[in-house]
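Can anyone check this?
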Amino acid sequence: MQLDNLALVGGEPVCQIDSPHYVWPRVTPAMKNAVLEQMDDSLSLYNRSGVIATFEDVFANYHGKKHALLNNSGTNSIHAAAIALGLRPGDEVIVPVYTFFATASPLMFLGVKPIFCDCGLDGNLDPYKLESLITTKTKAVMVTHMWGIPCQMDRIKSICDASGLSLVEDCSHAHGAEFDGKKVGTFGSIGIWSLQGQKIVTGGEGGVLVTDDSDLFSRALLTGHYNKRCKDEISRTHELADFSVTGFGLKHRSHPLAVAIALEQFQHLDEWIAQKTKYAALFDNVIQEFPFLKAPLYDAHRQKPAWYAYVFHFHQELANDVSIDQFEKALKAEGLRELDRPGSTCPLHAFPLFLQPERAFPGLYEKDAMKGRNNESFAVAELYYQSALKLPVWAFADEREIVEQYVSGIRKVSQWVMQDPEVFREDMKTAVGG
């Protein structure tokens, strides 16, 4: 086969589109109208009315849940969930070691000890390593559906139920994803989503939680929605009803303009997932042509990913001594500038926040509170992180051309890896003046 010259060594790049390759969210006339209409209505809502009530009702109904509660971020939604569950200093919560740090960081404000669990080859918490971490201090398990691929919720939920543990789902990457035909976020006590700028459903910033438990809902409400909402929505017979005016002292209220954007976005979620699934299949097809590349791992019969991102893996031992750095450089030379190697989403156990929390929260943690905990290697998570390459997953039918160019770029560079890997080493010699 005649190989086209790599752009890395002077060939023509596959992708030469000058305009941005990936823009999210797409600002449409409908989105602008939603904001303008909300500006004419109200810029601040103190109770459950207007766009706040509409979004919470639509979101709760979509997930078949009794309650939905908007907050100003997914992070604060996790914080509210932790308070609602009654977690206290010294309690342990098992969390995935491979996730964005905001899954676990709100726990630190309560003096809770996050106990990290390694991931499986899919990047999600490994349920087969979960049971060994449970102690008498364990109160809950948190999972993240990483990059939009659902966790193995049947086994995880079974373990939590058998052990009497609360189950919390961080669905920030997984709006609309399903496991065994059931929406993620509906398996545990509380499900949580981020509405931050790059999320599939976004308001720029924001977060939302769902639950069927009215007591948990009331406590989450008290955490960040004092006065009118609490007085209107918390039963007079609830043991904490007398806190309604002040709540627990925090304000997590969402902004109506952000919610108006998110509500308009939410109406397109299912159609976006359908289109993303088609584009992910194109990436799957090209990735599976080359033994040194591994596509995202999931069971299409049981798991319906949301495709927040497409994370595939580079296995150097099968790549003819071409490194992941060389492979990444060659892909970017072909114009695939949206290719990324996730940095801040990484194994969490070495962050000072989790290793030495007493430095940040001296009133909640004693010195060396985490000594002897979370000190294993987390080998699967480290391998997953070190070998990961990430692409966006486009959501619109009119973006097929750019997706196909990215597919062509991956195929072009990968063919060189398999048939003439020396060209990558020659490029390195040139770069250092060899």
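Reply from J.R.: I decoded it. The radius of gyration is 23 Å.
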